[in-house]
Design a protein that fits this description.
3-stranded antiparallel beta sheet; flat; alpha+beta; Nucleotidyltransferase, domain 5; 4-stranded antiparallel beta sheet
Length: about 230
Amino acid sequence: MTALEQYLGNDKGPPISHLGHTKIHTPNRSFTLSNVLHVSAITKPLLSVQKFYLDNNVYFEFHPHVFYVKDLNTHEVLLSGHCKDGLYALTKSSVTSVPQAYWSPCTSASADLWHRRLGHPTPCIFQLLISKNKIICNNKRLNFQCQSCPLGKLSCLSLGPTGHKTSAPLELIFSDVWGPTPLFSSDGYRYFVIFVDAYTKYVWYYPLVAKSDVYSVFHQFQTLKNKICSN
């Protein structure tokens, strides 16, 4: 099934064997494809951005290596994909606005897998979800071994003296970059960078689409720092 204009880039119109309508279904929304043209001479399915925009009240945001389909009103990321061989591909894995655990609520999975999907709940909460049929578990024995749970409860020793002492704000700044996240945020971000003032402990937070954005954000923060220090 192909949604495209009647004529291609070479001004030639290949024969259209069928015309119809269909939908792309995702866990939280269905997208309409009207006037779908079946063209047997074309081996790759093509999607008209303008028609998809008009039919579904969305807009496309293209980047060098990734693209996003966002709601026109809320700007929520509904679909995303990557650029492959110069083409932006829309695949089944493009649905990023819904966590992996909710792809198919009727699908049975092991207790260990559900435990990791749901953010490592306690056995009491896990058993409650099973008893209320909120999840379908093919192994209800909760004696599985989770390496992340004990690690998350460990406490670290406090850092010793570093030798760096500050007497004024913005004299010393700490920074850290985190990512990528397994899922995109509602605005399409997968990384973030923070800047922490050693004197006041004030934190500046910048979400990032790509890790390469750190360089431009650093200059942006440096400009802000210089402006604050000059006032």
